[in-house]
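A common beginner's mistake is to predict each chain separately and then try to dock the pieces by hand. The better habit, illustrated here, is to supply every component at once so that their relative placement is modeled jointly.
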Amino acid sequence: MAGRRGDTRERIREVALKLFIRQGYEKTTLREIAEELEVTKAALYYHFPTKEAIVRCLVQELVALIDELIAWVEAKPPGPQLHVEFLGRFSEVVSGDFGRLILFVQHNLPTMRDIVGAGAVGERLTTLFDLLYRGEDPEARLRIRLALIAVLFGNNATVLTDRRREPQPELALRVALDLASPRASAVSTGT
Amino acid sequence: MAGRRGDTRERIREVALKLFIRQGYEKTTLREIAEELEVTKAALYYHFPTKEAIVRCLVQELVALIDELIAWVEAKPPGPQLHVEFLGRFSEVVSGDFGRLILFVQHNLPTMRDIVGAGAVGERLTTLFDLLYRGEDPEARLRIRLALIAVLFGNNATVLTDRRREPQPELALRVALDLASPRASAVSTGT
Amino acid sequence: MAGRRGDTRERIREVALKLFIRQGYEKTTLREIAEELEVTKAALYYHFPTKEAIVRCLVQELVALIDELIAWVEAKPPGPQLHVEFLGRFSEVVSGDFGRLILFVQHNLPTMRDIVGAGAVGERLTTLFDLLYRGEDPEARLRIRLALIAVLFGNNATVLTDRRREPQPELALRVALDLASPRASAVSTGT
Amino acid sequence: MAGRRGDTRERIREVALKLFIRQGYEKTTLREIAEELEVTKAALYYHFPTKEAIVRCLVQELVALIDELIAWVEAKPPGPQLHVEFLGRFSEVVSGDFGRLILFVQHNLPTMRDIVGAGAVGERLTTLFDLLYRGEDPEARLRIRLALIAVLFGNNATVLTDRRREPQPELALRVALDLASPRASAVSTGT
DNA sequence: TATGAATGAGGCTTCATTCAT
DNA sequence: GATGAATGAAGCCTCATTCAT
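With all components supplied together, the output reads:
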C-alpha cells in the first residue's frame, strides 16, 4: 500500500504470469488478477488494452531474453568450448524470470499458437540453435536440445519429471554438459 | 446415419483428443466437437456426463497404457539390457495412440491439474521409472528420463523442438539408447 | 420384481406423487422417476403421454375424491349436525391418499395454475362449501374453511406448522369441531 | 435509463418477488426478470451472484420482518391481552410486504426446502409462537396458529380459499380474535 | 412393454469488454 | 488512474420428448 506507485503495470504482469502458469491462460480470469491486486477489473484496462495483450507482453519479454542469449552467443568465438559456456549461462538464466516464462509457454501451448502465432518462440529458439550448431549434424542438434531440456528439468517440474525429488540444478547441468560434449562414441558412429 | 452403430462414443473420444491437442481443452467447445461429428451437443451428453469426463476418460486410457508398460517391464528380468529393450518398446508405442495422449497431456498441463489431480500421470510414470532404475543413482534416473524425452521428440513437436525438420524417430532412438547406456564415469570420458 | 405385472402405471403415479410433494413438479425429472422405478425414461411414455399428464391424472384423482365428498354431503340431510359429521369424515379421508394429494397441490401451487387451470381444485372445493353452508353468512364460511385447515394441520406439515411437535389428529379435530359449531358468542355478534 | 440510479437491485427484488409468486421460482427465468426490467440477463449477475441468491435475499427479508415481530412481542408484557394486540399488529403487517413474502414462501414450498433449508422460516415462526404461548397447552398453540392463518386468509388467496369472494380483512381479524381468546373449557361451551 | 440413442429448446452462468463518472 | 454498472457473446448442461427396434 505504501511505495508502490506507478508500478501497477508491473504488478499485473507478475500476478498474471503466476496465474497463467498455475491455472493456464483460459482459466485465469481478469477478475482473479484484479482481486489479487486489490483493484477492479476495469483498472486493468488502463494498463493493458486486452487480456491477450498481457500474454503478448510476457512473450515479448521471453523473446527479448532469448535475443540476449543470441547476442551473447554471437559475441563469442564459435567452437566446442562455446557449448560448454553456453550451457552454464543457460543454467543461470533458467533459474530466474526466464525459467518462469518458459514454464508459462509450456503450460499454455495451444494458447500461444493462437495469440502469438505458431512459432513465435520456437522460431527464435531455432535461430539460437542454428547459431550454436551451424553446420552440425542432426544428432548434434538433438543432443543440444536435450541438454537444454536437462537444464530445464533441473529447475522446473512438468510431466515426465520425477515428482518425488527436489530439483537438482547441478546434477542437471552435469548431465547436460555430457550430452552436449562432442563424442566419437560407438553409438553415434554405428549404423 | 450410415453404417456407424454404437461407435459414437469412440468417435467423440477421437475428435475430442484431436481438438484438445490442437486447440487445448478450454478453447475446444462441445459445439465444435458435436459439429465435427454431425450430432447435436446433447448427444455428447448421452455418452459423457460432462466435458471433464471426456478428459478423464482420455487420461485413464493413457494410464492404462502406462500400466501395460509397467507390466511389460515387470515381466522382464532386470539388468542393463532391459533399458535397451524398453526404449525400443517405448519408441514403438509412442508412435501410436500413446504418443497422442502424451501430447494431449503436455498441451493441457494446468487443465490436467484441476481435472485429474496434480500427479495422476506423473505418479504412474514415476512408478515406471522406479521399476527401471530401482536402486540406481539420481543421475541415472535423470538420464533415463531424458532418453524417454528424446524418443518423444522423435515423434512429436513441442517447444524447444526444431520446427524446421521432420520427426526422425530412428535418430531419436539412437541418441536415447546412448543416453541410457551405462558409462564408465558420471561424466562420460569417451568410450 | 415378482408379482408386479401391469401395475407399472400405478407405480409411476405413486413415485411421481411422492417426488412431486418432496421436490416439487419442476425439480422432479422423469429420469428420477424412472430410476426409482428401475425402468428407462422412455418406458414412462408408454404409460403417460407427457409429464403434465401425470399431474393431470393426480389432480383428477383428487377431484374425484372431492366429488365423493360432495356426493356424501348431498346424501345427508342438511342441518348443523351435518357439519359435525362432515368434519369427522374429512378427518378420516385426510389421513389417506386424499391428504397426500392435497399436499401435492399445496406444494405445487403455481404449477397447478398453468397445467390444470387456476381453479380446478378450488372451484370444486367451493362447490363443496356451498353445499355445506348454503345461505350461511361469510363468517360461517370462513370458520368452516379454517376448521378444514385445522384438520389438515393435524396430519400434514407445512409452513406455519409447529415443526417441533408430532401431528395430533384428535386435537385438531376437536378444535375444528369447535370452530365449526354455531355460536351466538359476543365476538361474532359484536360490531 | 431515466432517473433510476442505484435502485436496480431493488427493482430486481421487486420483479422477482412478483414473478416467483405468480409463476413459481422454477418457472420464472432470469430472462423474464431481465426483460421486464429492460436490462440484460448479465446485469442481474452484477447484483446477485446467482438465481438462488435472489430467493435467499427475499427469505432474509421475511426473516427480518418476523424478527421485528418477535422483538415487538418481547417488548410487551405477557398476558391474554397480548394475543389480541398481536393479532392486530399481525393483521396490519400482513397487508404489506410481509404478506407477499409469505405468499412467496407458500407458493414455493419445495424450493424453499432446498435453497434455504427445511426450517428457515418455520423455525423462526415457532420461536414467535413460543413467545406468545410460553407454557400454554397444545390446543392453545393450535388455535393461535389457526388465528394467524385466518388473518392471512383475509388478505391472500390459496388453496382452500374461497375464490369467489373478495378478501375481507376485518372479518378475518374478527374470527381470529375469537379463535385466540381464552375460553372456559377446551371445547367451547358457548359464552 | 420397453429400451438405447438422439434431439431441440432453453436455462443458468461466466467472461472480456465498455463507458460514463 | 480508477470504479461501478452494464452488455453481448458464448459456454456448459438439463430436460422433456421422439423413434426405430
